[in-house]
Design brief:
- The structure is a single chain.
- The chain is mainly alpha-helical.
- It has 3 domains: 3-36, no CATH class; 101-166, no CATH class; 172-291, no CATH class.
- Helices cover 66% and strands 0% of the residues.
- It is built from 16 helices and no strands.
- Helix 9 (173-183) packs antiparallel against helix 10, helix 9 (173-183) packs parallel to helix 11 (202-214) and helix 11 (202-214) packs antiparallel against helix 12.
- It starts with a helix and ends in a 7-residue tail after the last helix.
Length: 291
């Protein structure tokens, strides 16, 4: 849901008498009918207009124009963290990117604390609260950039804080954290996180493969390699050097069990690639080798 739609919905709901789930659903149905027919006045606050410019920045024909639009967004609403992060990501030096995002997050945390968003009732639900969603998204981006820059301990602490603030983990930072736990040989923490979300895919299984292989517990490593091969047949094919047909679509559209899932792992988990490549023969032969 975009900023303008959310603000319009919030204003509409303030005038509704909602006492039950049924009342809520009726109000939502009424809102969508009125909104889609153009009968509701859209939000025109500074933040809403800033997001309009940010949308223009994301679709700009050039980097120069994109930066221009993002700067306009910040001129209208300096507290627009998404615009701050957008500009930071335009920098060529990863240290500057990380430094800028950290500064933006620090300023946003101070603002959110002043406005009461860090009160206990909100902890664990930050992505569901529209005003704190940019904070979680920016923290997740920071965790990714830190892993890319091999600042793994710092990335681990950031990822843990994200999950504390947003237990449903809409940004998927748990996958990064599982990889980090494997990197630091933290089996107990890795197992706890796996049990909490209970899903079998490359991003949850590969960390176990790496951890047990590095420990030279090859039977256990083979157990997880078998699970990986069941979850995605293209994983082994990639390590056999076969062309599995990587997608040209943006990586956020990857699908479990498909080549795009292998692609996102290879491209997003560089801090684990050296460990994976060291077990190429193990993967190629389904763990049936003497090591």
């Amino acid at each position: 849901m975009d900023y303008k739609l959310n603000e319009t919905l919030t204003k509409f709901m303030e005038g509704e008498d909602i006492k039950s789930e049924e009342d809520l659903q009726k109000a939502l149905d009424k809102f969508m009918t009125l909104y889609n027919s153009g009968q509701l006045e859209e939000d025109s606050s500074p933040m809403s207009r800033a997001y309009d410019y940010l949308d223009m920045a994301k679709n700009a024909p050039s980097k120069k124009k994109a930066m221009e639009y993002a700067k306009r967004a910040l001129a209208i609403a300096p507290e627009c963290l998404d615009a701050t992060v957008f500009l930071c990501e335009m920098k060529n030096n990863i240290d500057q990117v990380i430094k800028g995002i950290k500064e933006g997050i620090a300023n946003e945390k101070e603002r959110l604390e002043e406005e009461g968003y860090f009160e206990e009732e909100n902890i664990g639900h930050f992505y569901q609260i529209f005003e704190t969603r940019p904070y979680i998204k920016s923290m997740s981006k920071l965790a990714m950039y830190l892993t890319e820059d091999k600042k793994l301990k710092e990335a681990k602490e950031i990822a843990k804080e994200i999950l504390r603030l947003n237990e449903t983990d809409n940004t998927g930072v748990r996958y990064i954290l599982m990889g980090l736990y494997a990197s630091f040989d933290e089996e107990e923490e890795l197992e706890k996180l796996y049990q909490k979300y209970e899903e079998d895919c490359l991003e949850t299984l590969i960390p176990f493969l790496i951890l047990y292989y590095k420990r030279k517990d090859y039977p256990k490593a083979k157990e997880y390699l078998d699970k990986i091969n069941k979850a995605n047949k293209y994983f082994k094919q990639f390590f056999l050097g076969k062309n599995i047909g990587f997608s040209k679509m943006p990586l956020e559209y990857y699908t479990h069990g498909e080549p795009s899932e292998v692609q996102i792992y290879i491209e997003n988990y560089g801090f684990l690639l050296e460990d994976l490549l060291s077990m190429t023969e193990f993967i190629q032969k389904d763990g049936e080798i003497k090591v």
